[in-house]
Amino acid sequence: MEPKETTVEAAAESLVEPVEIAAKPPITAQETAKPATKSIVSAPEPAPSTTEPRTEVAIPQNTPELTTELWNKITATWEEYFGEGKKSNVTLALTVIAIIPVLIAASTLLEFLDKLPILPSVFELVGFGYSIWFVYRYLLLANTRKELIDTITAWKNKVFG
Predict the structure, then answer these.
(1) Number of CB atoms found within 10 A of residue 3's CB
(2) What is the mean pLDDT of residues 89-117?
(3) How many domains does the chain have?
(4) Residue 71 forms part of a structural domain
(5) Which domain holds residue 85?
(6) Which of 35, 68, 130, 158 is the most exposed place for a label (fewest CB within 10 A)?
(7) Across all residues in the chain, what is the average pLDDT?
(8) Which of 93, 68, 97, 96 is nearest to 82 (CA)?
(9) What is the tens place of the pLDDT at every residue in 2-14?
(10) 14 Cβ partners below 8 Å, 6+ apart?
């Protein structure tokens, strides 16, 4: 199997060239007495790199101007959405902000209750029982499924208009 040209093996094979040993007559004692001559051996050229060149990220010099421009865009978008005469969503924003600590507190409470020895098993049994009741009450019969679908549709219309 021939190595592909982009692999390390192909680069290594391109550096190795076959060397032929020429048949020389045997060395005599007179030739060994001669002073040795220096021979110069050149190193092979390095193989081209197969890795991608490094890319540099240019940081603009006018960073404060970009920050100011970005802030102006944000405030313009905010005014366009929440500006005068627009529907006020401050209540929605405050509700979302208030829900975060409530979720953290509930998560902490559940973690504490999960560490108590018997409560996790009780919670699993309660959840299993509720699931069985829900299937029996809403999903088992066709008329109760229709009731559930009507309830969900009414709720969606109430919330989304």
Answers:
(1) 13
(2) 88
(3) 2
(4) no
(5) 76-115
(6) 35
(7) 77
(8) 93
(9) 545 566 665 556 5
(10) 47
Per-residue DSSP letters for the chain?
A: -PPPTTSHHHHHHHH----PPPP-PPPPHHHHHSPPPP---PPPPPPPP-SPPPP-PPPPS-HHHHHHHHHHHHHHHHHHHHSTTSPP-HHHHHHHHHHHHHHHHHHHHHHHHHHSSSHHHHHHHHHHHHHHHHIIIIISSHHHHHHHHHHHHHHHHHHH-
CA distance 83 to 75: 10
Neighbours of 10 (CB within 10 A): 14
Instruction: Give the integer Cα–Cα distance in Å for 64 and 132.
Output: 61
Are the C-beta atoms of 144 and 137 separated by less than 8 Å?
Answer: yes
